[in-house]
TrEMBL record:
PANTHER family (alphabetical): 21S RRNA PSEUDOURIDINE(2819) SYNTHASE, MITOCHONDRIAL RNA PSEUDOURIDINE SYNTHASE
The Pseudouridine synthase RsuA/RluA-like domain, residue ranges: 185-355
Keyword match Magnesium: no
Cell compartments where the protein resides: Mitochondrion
Protein name listed in UniProt: PseudoU_synth_2 domain-containing protein
A single MF term (Gene Ontology): RNA binding
GO cellular component, one term: mitochondrion
Keywords of the record: Isomerase, Mitochondrion
Pfam families for the chain: PseudoU_synth_2
Family: Belongs to the pseudouridine synthase RluA family.
GO annotation terms (biological process): enzyme-directed rRNA pseudouridine synthesis
SUPFAM superfamilies per record: Pseudouridine synthase
């Protein structure tokens, strides 16, 4: 009798869970696994294979995201529901724990097999009959019911990323940042000072923490679909699966493409992002549209760089950048609260447009408003002593996060830029409805409105300037 390692058996049953509920499903999976274990078309590891779940109805996430960004409806909805999937895409989707480089190598070395739904592998329960597996190329399209088989040695590989270990206090803190969660997305209110991605000198990043603390019962970690600067706070949306992340990526990308084509006026905006910023000075107009291309300038022999407005877009590589703004509230002390809506998603777009186009750098932006901050003076807050005493009593948060200090009452204020609101299509409902029927009218899909409260130091600045 075949003896299976508990981890291998659990992995198999988890991947084939839809089939185990059927009569005799458990026995069929064990029988199939036994036959594929004994199959000997190659000499590698005794000819043992690891089965990937059969190819089922798939949704083209990129096409769906593009259609949602355009408002839904039309023939594109059917196209999104009936996508063609290659062998390598299906393996990467079903086995997110495998490094992409390894999967590519297995296909390149011709070590991947396919059992077609209408071939000899369909009768998996027949004892003593080996399935007829054939080599499959990475870009070969799959038919419904086709099954991919990888060398069993992939089971012994370590995870591509080292697991990030967190104590209970750290897990609770990360989960306290949650604003919204459904089967497709998870949304957090990112604190200022927490990097979104890892890099040189970064010990803990939000994407690593999300994989540890926000995966819950999902086999895949949440995936980033857009970015926030390290010192920026506010709404950060992540896809809970590879498919939902692909849809969201496409929605954010289409927003930038449409704005780059100047398709701005008289068009319903499916994706809306609104930031609040406290700036030094006041714009000439209470509302307006900034359309200024941005380019990167390398400084210090390549050691650093900065983004700047490009006067002549033909003389250097540049990116079209568009920002809407309106004044929320002005202060007699020379500060203004602005609502900023980026219609394109460029690096440091809001910070550069505020500093170089509007002439009103954001408070705490020492990169693009350094000249103004050289003359910075603490705000003459009458109750400053009591305020600072309260700050000293605040409890230290995990990961060195401090959400209290940094208001205009302090010598070195923090960046006052906060992603306060995002409106986007209900991706979870779109996926559920398309799986049920490819004729679903995406134009009827409702939106989700996400709102994140300002961090305490920005709220403190708001209260001070109103007093």
């Amino acid at each position: 009798m075949l003896k299976l390692k508990p981890t291998v058996l659990h992995h198999l049953l988890q991947r084939f869970s839809p089939y185990t509920a059927a009569p005799g499903g458990y026995e069929h999976i064990l029988a199939a696994f036994h036959q594929y274990q004994s199959f000997s078309s190659t000499q590698r590891r005794g000819g043992k294979w690891f089965p990937v779940p059969p190819f089922t109805h798939a949704i083209n996430g990129s096409a769906l995201g593009s259609e949602l960004a355009r408002g839904g409806g039309g023939a594109s909805a059917s196209k999104a529901a009936a996508s063609e999937t290659t062998a390598i895409k299906w393996v990467l989707k079903c086995c997110p724990e495998l490094p992409r480089s390894l999967v590519q190598k297995l296909f390149r070395l011709r070590q991947v097999r396919r059992g077609s739904a209408d071939g000899g592998s369909s009768d998996l329960g027949a004892q003593g009959q080996a399935p007829q597996l054939k080599r499959v190329a990475a870009k070969d399209l799959l038919n419904l019911g086709d099954q991919i088989f990888l060398p069993i040695s992939v089971q012994e590989l370590p995870s591509e990323k080292q697991e990030c270990h967190c104590c209970e206090e750290e897990v609770n803190f990360v989960r306290s940042l949650e604003l919204y969660k459904d089967p497709a997305i998870i949304v957090v209110n990112k604190p200022s000072g927490m990097p979104v991605q890892g890099g040189v000198g970064i010990k803990r990043s939000l994407d690593e923490l999300a994989a540890t603390c926000l995966s819950y019962d999902y086999s895949e970690p949440p995936r980033l679909v857009h970015r926030l600067d390290r010192d920026c706070s506010g709404i950060l949306v992540m896809g809970r699966t590879q498919l939902s992340a692909t849809v969201l990526h496409s929605i954010f990308r289409e927003k930038t493409v449409d704005a780059s084509k100047c398709e701005i006026n008289n068009k319903k905006r499916i994706l809306q992002r609104r930031y609040w910023a406290l700036v030094i000075g006041s714009p000439r107009r209470t509302k307006g549209l900034v359309a200024a291309p941005l380019g990167k300038v390398v400084l210090d022999n390549g050691k650093s760089d900065r983004i700047t407005v490009v006067d002549c877009a033909q003389m250097m590589s540049s990116q079209h950048a568009v920002t809407e703004y309106r004044v929320i509230q002005s202060s007699s002390h020379g500060y203004t609260w602005l609502e900023l809506s980026p219609l394109t998603g460029r690096k440091h777009q809001l910070r550069v447009h505020c500093a170089e186009v509007l002439g009103t750098p954001i408070v705490g932006d020492y990169k693009y408003g350094w000249q103004v901050h050289r003359k910075w003076k603490q705000f003459p807050f009458s109750d400053l002593k009591n305020s600072n005493e309260d700050l000293c009593k605040e409890k230290t948060l995990p990961f060195g996060i401090d959400m209290e200090r940094g208001s205009v009452s302090e010598k070195h204020p923090r960046l006052h830029l906060h992603c306060k609101q995002i409106i986007l299509p209900n991706v979870s409902q779109a996926l559920q409805n398309l799986l049920a029927s490819s004729d679903y009218d995406l134009s009827e899909l409702p939106s989700i409105e996400l709102v994140a409260p300002m961090p305490p130091y920005m709220q403190r600045s708001w209260d001070i300037l109103k007093s």
